[in-house]
Amino acid sequence: MKDEDLRNRIAAADSGADLNLDQTIVARAALGKKRAPIGFRAMRLVVAAGASVLVAALALPQALAPKPLFSLAGSGGEKATSMAATEEVSADAATSMIWPGWFEYTYVADGLSTQGGRGTVYEVKRVGNPEQILKQVAKVFGISGDVKQDEWSTPEYPSYSISNEETSLNIYWSGPGGWYFSNWSGGFAYGCAEPAPADDDTEMRDEGYVCEEPKPSGLVPDEAILRAQAIDLFGQLGVEVVESELRVYRDDWGASVSMPYLLNGEAISLESYIGWGYDGKVSYASGYSIEIVSRGEFDTISPADTVARISDWRWYGSAPSRYYDNFYRTATDVAVAAEEPAMVDEAGASDQDDSALVDEGTSTEGEEPKIAPQPEQVEPEIVEVRVNKSEAALLSVWDGSGNMWLVPGYLLFNDQGWFDTIISLVEGVIELPEPMEVMPLEDSVLRED
């Protein structure tokens, strides 16, 4: 019975049966809006999420890039002056940085290595207590007195001193913490007597002051004694001495011995000095209280690539003084050898025509003064400088807070007879100052009185 009832229900549900639907229902169904697969709010959320992903993807490399170790002086650090902050002032002083432009140099690498490398950056940190350091130095040189903070001292740049009638000892507790001693009681090589008054006591005689001819005192120690005294004093001051690095200067009027600070056996630009005066006694000295801390190794560019930085002042550092000493010594020898004496007749007069010295603008009585012609604007002469030799060196630079750093660089020697000291670190390790453009003089500026 149940099976027959089920068969009857299936037969009544035949899909082929005619269905009569109300037309109103059909029309409304046709005019109804289709439901969007994603609503406006959902779409806005999807777009915003996609934009966030895109921004994150773009910012990720910058976020992962290492920050500069420090900002060079003038580069916009906390205590450095940024160019943006002075833009308005610079606009009003358009001629504050001008250069007449007689020469313009172009630098070309000539046979230099194209291989980059790695180099270590060091921070030079002052150590110790400035007042205690001053007391220790005073003991070495026999200076009496109390340590006092100078009136110009500031929390950022503290300074202290011990002073009396004949000596002065100062320490500046910023940067590498330099101290300086001077003694001005050693006398002079010559003296000058005041002119005697005329008979009526109202006028001075025409000859003025009468000065003695300077004569050597014979009291300046010879080089061997200078070295021995310097080694003893440096030892008392805690300066590491390597005798081969001592540099001695001496003449009849005074002497000095310097000892550079060493890093891994190599000299850096900081040095300790001891000087002797005309009387043969120590007249000045200076030194520092530092430790040198490694801040890591970084990539460097090649000497050939470094040449392109010569025209950008921001990449310059300071080399140890021995490089400059050798350069100036060579330059002086060349200059002396090339110098020719002027031709002078028996009366002591030069053979130069005095009329050539007369200014064209000089006028005689009754005549209008003549204005000397002004030079016209001259295009700079282009000089090609070929950089043909390089030498790696640690260069000293200063950050925006007055602290000293040692960075890898090159001494780039050229065919013109000088060298440039250029930082070789890849970009990004240190923050550079904003570029500063040097403008040529305009013709109107050249003609201003």
Helical stretch count?
9
How does the helix and strand content classify structurally?
alpha+beta
Give unreliable regions as ranges.
15-49, 53-62, 75-100, 342-363, 441-449
Determine the mean pLDDT: 75
Q: Work out the number of β strands.
A: 18
Shape: extended
| Rg, Å, rounded | 40 Å
Strand content: 25-35%
- In quaternary terms, these chains amount to single chain
For the largest beta sheet, what order do the strands appear in spatially? 4-5-6-7-13-12-11-10
Order of helices and strands: HHHHEEEHEEEEEEHEEEEEHHEEEEH
Helix amount, in percent? Answer: 10-25%
**Biggest sheet statistics:** 8 strands, antiparallel
Domain module tally: 3
Distance between the termini: 130 Å
Structure, described:
With 449 residues, the chain is an alpha+beta fold. It has 3 domains: 66-126 and 289-333 and 378-449, no CATH class; 128-178, no CATH class; 186-288, no CATH class. 23% of the residues lie in helices and 27% in strands. It has helices at residues 2-12, 23-31, 40-64, 87-92, 130-141, 223-236, 303-306, 321-338, 443-446; strands at residues 98-99, 103-109, 117-126, 148-149, 159-163, 167-172, 178-183, 192-193, 210-211, 247-251, 254-263, 266-276, 282-288, 290-300, 381-398, 404-414, 419-423, 439-440. The protein has an 8-stranded antiparallel beta sheet with strand order 4-5-6-7-13-12-11-10, covered by helices on one side. Strands 2, 3, 14, 15, 16 and 17 form a 6-stranded mixed beta sheet that branches. A hairpin with a 5-residue loop joins strand 15 and strand 16. The chain is extended. Mean pLDDT is 75; it is low at 15-49, 53-62, 75-100, 342-363 and 441-449.
